[in-house]
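Same chain as my last thread, 363 residues:
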Amino acid sequence: MEVYKRWVWRNKQYVHSLESFANGLTWLLPERFSDSEIGPEAVTSILGIITAINEHILETIPIQARTGHVESSSFPFSLCITILKDLESLLEVVAQQFYGEEKKWNFMAVTEAVKALLRLAVLQKSGYKMLLHGGETINDGSESDDSSINGPISRPGLQGVSGILNNHGQTPSNLEGRAMSALNRFGENARTVSEPTWLRRVQHQQAIIEPPKSVAEIPSLSAFLSEKGIPGGLYLTGEVMFILRPLVYVLLIRKYGARSWFPWITSLVVDLVGNGIISFVATAWKNSKDFRLSTVEKNELKRRKLLWALYLMRDPFFTRYTGQRLDGTQKLLEPVPIIGLLTEKLVELLVGAQTRYTYMSGS
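reply #2:
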């Protein structure tokens, strides 16, 4: 394993190119959005996991080279979140095919519960700082000056959308890839930084290799609330609401059904209130260094707001409004050469992606 780690570190750009090429080939897999998607989903999930592991190696190798030993006391919560997100689409397809539409929500609830626990662990481990990209990126809080922050680190993997809403920073050559890349701009993996992933990764690694700074002790929950007071409690409440929102949404769907308005409205309210609380604290106490948002944290809030666009693609709103608008647009443009064909294909892809919870969950 150590030999493989060293090889990945020495050939990081080649590894990135190979991963991008392999993930691009997944678009050629048949049976996407059909009754038998287990094969394609399994392939894309495996590729996503390999990508996640390689990126974890690229993050940890510089630390090991500098310190001369492997740190085994720190559990890779962020890596576990990424791997779970790569597996959840496959789990949804398998559960639906073998257990049916209703019982698949039991598996989705378990998945969201595990992700929530992992994210709460990341939140505690970071000293109760804002989660970046759902806990997949570490918020070390080393800089709070807006002018001195590098962009957030994001891996080029599929991040739980299994090739449908991919996030490689690459533009697929086929129509399906281009259409879903456009959807991805405001979808599950909405990003607010335009640099290539490998470049941001290298920048992050260069920062890691710099002389180590003193590591601050992680405060306990009671110590954090005692020190930060009411604004700290509000800030933490907003983050916990963001973490628990997907779990609450799935549990309500499991009870009331995907076509009920109650889960949809409840999820939207939790999103709005949680984000509003964090924005309020950051604005009201903007002169306090404890609650002054860094550039990456501001970008994270923008990313979370972009994810609200997915409510347009979730039932019952999609069935009642968005789907009808898409059908109307398709019929309107159908007589137009080329444009009508492209519109038909795009609508087909959007409707197909909308049938999968994991593609539109924003979790």
